[in-house]
């Protein structure tokens, strides 16, 4: 089987490794050009190391990109983490067409931040889809889907890297075999159930401290790629979050879920027109400080779960 991989970064590399490991022939890899001064793309670096031809493409609809794919004489195209638009003139070139990975249960959560939104919305389950790309964004017929549970401590990082990522690689292998063998069953997406959400950026993940603590936690979890459940979050509590700032060393280690106690914290009591010292205890919800103890020159903000009566 001759395969063309269109993708990028760690997921694209994992897909390349998986196909090569089982003896398939990867005819070529299509990647976006590296930005000047940026770290080399993981998929591109792996392909070059293994002697797989690499084609850097700025626009997949360009005649030279389509011709490059045609020259590979691929049996099937595999889109593994593609953020650029890929027209039908390109995706239909391989003998069996092209299939694509998307990290949600389509037609739910179409769009570029489909892992973040289920966490932000408090869903208990999400998953991945392997589908046929069409002109509409994430709208093509579905070939295969896999469900995963969203745990109460999951971040976008743990959900993706621990479950969706490895399951997506194996699902692409499974779907490829079904398509090439002529056994794949395609089903159209139910447009009445379709949702689309855009990028989760600063505006979408901005925390409103008047919200319930559970909403605050979900926002923090949905934007942290670097935190996983084993790093801890501390116990959940019904209540509110407070924002605390401090110059100088914090009395404890600043990592998410750590217990922290601040003695003599100044509380701004505007009604009385004065500040009132009080003790504060709780668990860290979110911090931009590095792990460990923070030097006196370092100024950061930490948010706390408040202990009952804190």
By helix and strand content, what is the structural category? alpha/beta
How much of the residues is beta strand, in percent?
25-35%
The helix content is 10-25%
User: Helix tally?
Assistant: 7
The CATH class of the largest domain, by name, is Alpha Beta
State mean pLDDT (0 to 100 scale): 81
Q: Can you name the CATH architecture of the largest domain?
A: 3-Layer(aba) Sandwich
Alpha carbon gyration radius: 24 Å
Q: Classify the fold: give the CATH topology of the largest domain.
A: Rossmann fold
Number of domains: 2
Helix-strand string: EHEHEHEHEHEEHHEEEE
Q: What is the terminal-to-terminal distance?
A: 64 Å
Strand order of the largest sheet: 3-2-1-4-5-6-7
Largest sheet: 7 strands, mixed
DSSP, total strands:
11
Characterize the overall form: globular
Short account of what is shown:
It contains seven helices and eleven strands. Mean pLDDT is 81; it is low at 227-241, 266-273 and 288-310.
Protein model, in words:
The protein has two domains: 2-193, 3-Layer(aba) Sandwich (Rossmann fold), CATH 3.40.50; 232-306, no CATH class. Helix content is 24%, strand content 26%. It contains seven helices and eleven strands. The protein has helices at 9-21, 42-49, 63-72, 88-91, 116-120, 156-180, 213-222; strands at residues 2-7, 25-31, 54-56, 76-80, 98-102, 125-131, 142-149, 241-247, 259-269, 274-287, 299-306. Strand 1 (2-7), helix 1 (9-21) and strand 2 (25-31) form a beta-alpha-beta unit. It is globular, with a radius of gyration of 24 Å. The termini are far apart.
